[in-house]
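Annex B.
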Amino acid sequence: MNTLNQQWELDSIFAGGSESNRFHTFLNELDQAIQAARKQLETQKIPFTHNDVQPFTALVERYESLCKQFNEAAAFIECLTAQNIKDQAAAQANNRMHSLGAELDAVNSLFETALREIADADFQTLINAPQLRAISFSLNEKRTLSRKKLEANQEQLISALAVDGYHAWEDLYYQLIGKMEITIAHHGKKENNVGQPGKQSAR
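Oligoendopeptidase F: predicted structure tokens.
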């Protein structure tokens, strides 16, 4: 009888896991793409008008692509950490993702500022373009919610401080949990990290 493999096939995503050269190349390319998008938004002529359908569409698609790539990388690192919480290379990659996340938040703040600055009539024309019609609701909602936020430079400061504050404490917690072990009797004695006894008792 075949037994179910309870370990993820992460090599099918990026061969080599946390040591994957392709994954580190992916992160480097993501970093460069985020920096390029930030530079574009900082120098972009705003507000967009109804005549700017093509550049506005290109900006939205670029932003979408960055978010998708970031989420893919973050999910992969989360899986690596869940698989082996003592994986130091995964921990280092996770720290880098926090920094990239702060940079992406900066891009997001600038993107939201660009949305806010567009006149209502022009905005409706832009989001009803054939290329953006499918996500017009999301863009409209993002623009509305952005009006409740602080100025872009203040939002960027919050994101930057979170790297060594909120995120760092969360990482420290999981690192400490990973070092703690409890011996339990389950078909003989066995060493388990703190997260495993709960899983065993749930079976």
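The first helix runs from residue 21 to 43. The domain at 13-164 is CATH 1.20.140.70 (Butyryl-CoA Dehydrogenase, subunit A; domain 3). Further annotation is deferred to the next reporting cycle.
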